[in-house]
Amino acid sequence: MEQDKVFARNVRIARSLLVVFLLALAVFILVFCFVYGMSDFLVILGLSMFFIGPAYIANAMMVFTKTINHPMDGGRYFIDGRRLFGQTKTWGGFLGGILFGFVAGVAINLVFWFSYPSINAFALTQLALLKYPVTLNYLQAFLYPNVWLIPVRALFCGLGAPIGDLVKSFFKRRLSIGSGGPFWIADQLDFIVATVLLNLAWFPLNRFNILLLLFMTPSVTLFANYVAYSIGRKKEPW
């Protein structure tokens, strides 16, 4: 009975967090569009999705590849007597996330790299119409880097989700939070924060890219989890 009450409370918290993040995202979009414009927002959105797309794929594929059940901590315990990462953090999920994120990152970057001459020709006529200071140099740094940077970017974008999830799991074990138990805010922001930090050297991210992703990613994740929970495809909505 007590477990049912705790679960019901956690469901309410998950719904409340979803509302909070959706409101924060809506306010960010409205303010940005009011100050700059809808076209400017679509540019920032497009560049942000270009950056974060491989990390989204890595995060999703970890769920499928973790069924290869070899725990990363090998069953070892930390000095506090608790598991290092836990039974559900497997080499399959970790390496699978990195692999799929890397492949997606290489593919996405190459598509835009080869398409950049056309993008540049279009941008020459369109950037002058924007209020937000998006320059050709900024666009080129995002979409047309030195070719050796493409696999580097792809690797670090693929690393973001597995590393963020692993660090979060380490602290969950220290706080005696079991696998599947909620670790509010960290559950929603772990992989986006890790991905941003790992890629600051490889992408010209600005404050608007980062703010948009910090509001949008938890909204998308919580909404998808809640829908999956509502239709019986997931045991918990967080």
3D structure, described in words:
By secondary structure, the protein is mainly α. The protein has one domain (2-230). It has seven helices and no strands. Helix 5 packs antiparallel against helix 6. The longest helix is centred in the middle third of the chain and has 36 residues, at 91-126. The two termini are 21 Å apart. 31% of the residues are buried. The mean pLDDT is 88.
Topology summary:
Elements: H1 2-35, H2 38-65, H3 91-126, H4 136-143, H5 149-174, H6 186-199, H7 207-230
Key terms:
single chain; 238 residues; mainly alpha; 7 helices; 71% helix; 0% strand; globular
- The number of domains is 1
Q: Count the helices. How many? A: 7
Bin the strand percentage.
under 5%
Class based on secondary structure composition and strand pairing = mainly alpha
Produce a short descriptive summary:
This protein has helices at 2-35, 38-65, 91-126, 136-143, 149-174, 186-199, 207-230. The chain is mainly α and 238 residues long.
